[in-house]
């Protein structure tokens, strides 16, 4: 019955309709505009729902329904096209953002595009692996952005920051770790999952010879340099360079003083009394900071940053073998009754196998351990594009 043309057309329609729902849930172009606007919520909530849970539900749904999607190459091409477009063009939008939380939101959009590309090339395990590594370093970046906002007295414009590294050393170091994982620096967690997706897209473009596959591969490569550029732009504007927050505070104080010039004497006296009370209260506590002097956030904020920085470094290195390729990555997968089949940690999630589109199996044939994978990645185009983005920033 499945060979009947009408069934295949129905499968295509069903898959595309299901994926349109996933597009809204996982913020794929053009249904992505809601996610940056949702950054108005508290930063810990953003870290939870935008890094690990809510927005990844669409990715997980398509992964679980992979047997259905494998029935329609048209649907998979549609998934690949949308994912590649999201990965590249949302990164372009992120370049011109100045709100630190909105920039991190566009980080999320771009990485969701990479996961969708993995789905479109039938590398479902790679999509889930990137979902997992992404949860750690993206939560780290969200909470790091929240730490900066607290230190800057709820200022979110990166143009009014700068030079914060000497005031916030823990936040500075941990956000650098999260950024290095995000851009795919070799030996960091994001490298292993992200580079696997890029190699899967390259393999798919090589074997399929379709324009969609070629577009998908070049779009994700373009997304690499774009992601690197606006990621390091965030770091440089926030933690390096001139302390622009002093100029912004002086301008605000001057404007405020000009507005108060025509105030009545009672208001001035009340303001002076409040200021005196506030200064006394501040001195009694002995903080030693000016009213707008940035400072490191309390341990309740910095401790989660440190805890998230650890898996952002190591989980990809120790996880890619057993979690993505299973115990078979050392060559044992060639002994299976079905050549190339890989039994990974995610086999319970992705329980479908199609010999004509075994992308993970093909990558497993070339995988020789995390160290060799990282050394190989240093010679790949994605690494040089990452360096180019760093230099441009």
Fold and architecture overview:
There is one protein chain. By secondary structure, the protein is mainly alpha-helical. The chain has one domain (5-243, 292-392). The protein contains 17 helices and no strands. The termini are far apart. Mean pLDDT is 80; it is low at 252-291 and 331-342.
Instruction: Summarize model confidence as the mean pLDDT.
Output: 80
> How would a crystallographer describe the biggest sheet?
none
Count of discrete structural domains: 1
Let me know the number of strands. Answer: 0
Provide the low-confidence segments as ranges.
252-291, 331-342
* Strand residue content: under 5%
Distance between the termini: 56 Å
Q: Count helical runs.
A: 17
Q: Over the alpha carbons, how many angstroms does the gyration radius reach? A: 24 Å
Structural class, by secondary structure, is mainly alpha
Helical percentage: 55-70%
Shape: globular
Question: What is the ordering of alpha helices and beta strands?
Answer: HHHHHHHHHHHHHHHHH
Summarize the structure.
The chain is mainly α and 393 residues long. It contains 17 helices and no strands.
Name the features.
393 residues, mainly alpha
Set down the secondary structure blueprint:
Elements: H1 5-25, H2 34-37, H3 43-51, H4 57-64, H5 66-69, H6 73-95, H7 100-120, H8 124-151, H9 169-183, H10 189-208, H11 211-239, H12 244-259, H13 265-285, H14 299-325, H15 359-365, H16 370-377, H17 381-392
């Amino acid at each position: 019955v499945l060979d009947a043309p009408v069934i295949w057309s129905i499968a295509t329609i069903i898959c595309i309709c299901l994926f349109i729902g996933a597009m809204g849930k996982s913020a794929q172009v053009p249904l992505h505009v809601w996610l940056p606007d949702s950054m108005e919520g508290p930063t810990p909530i953003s870290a939870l729902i935008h890094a690990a849970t809510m927005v990844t539900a669409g990715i997980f749904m398509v992964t679980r329904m992979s047997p259905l999607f494998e029935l329609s190459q048209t649907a998979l091409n549609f998934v690949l096209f949308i994912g590649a477009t999201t990965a590249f063009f949302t990164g372009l939008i992120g370049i011109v953002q100045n709100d630190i939380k909105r920039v991190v939101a566009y980080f999320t959009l771009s990485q969701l595009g990479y996961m969708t590309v993995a789905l479109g090339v039938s590398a479902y395990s790679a999509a889930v692996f990137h979902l997992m590594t992404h949860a750690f370093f993206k939560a780290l970046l969200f909470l790091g952005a929240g730490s900066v906002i607290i230190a800057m007295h709820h200022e979110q414009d990166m143009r009014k920051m700068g030079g914060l590294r000497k005031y916030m050393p823990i936040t500075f170091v941990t956000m650098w770790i999260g950024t290095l994982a995000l851009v795919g620096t070799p030996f960091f967690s994001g490298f292993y999952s992200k580079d696997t997706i890029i190699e899967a897209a390259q393999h798919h473009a090589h074997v399929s010879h379709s324009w969609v596959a070629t577009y998908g591969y070049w779009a994700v490569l373009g997304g690499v340099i774009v992601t690197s550029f606006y990621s390091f732009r965030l770091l440089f504007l926030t933690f390096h360079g001139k302390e622009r927050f002093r100029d912004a505070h002086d301008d605000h104080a001057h404007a405020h003083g000009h507005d108060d010039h025509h105030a009545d004497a009672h208001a001035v006296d009340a303001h002076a009394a409040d200021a005196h009370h506030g200064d006394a209260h501040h001195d009694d506590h002995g903080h030693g900071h000016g009213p707008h002097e940035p400072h490191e956030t309390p341990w309740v904020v910095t401790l989660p940053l440190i805890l998230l920085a650890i898996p952002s470094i190591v989980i990809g290195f120790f996880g890619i073998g057993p979690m993505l390729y299973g115990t078979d990555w050392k060559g044992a997968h060639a002994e299976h009754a079905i050549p190339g089949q890989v039994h990974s940690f995610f086999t319970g999630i992705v329980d479908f196998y199609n010999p004509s589109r075994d992308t993970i199996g093909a990558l497993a044939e070339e995988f020789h351990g995390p160290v060799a994978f990282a050394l190989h990645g240093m010679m790949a185009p994605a690494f040089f594009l990452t360096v180019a983005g760093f230099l441009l920033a």
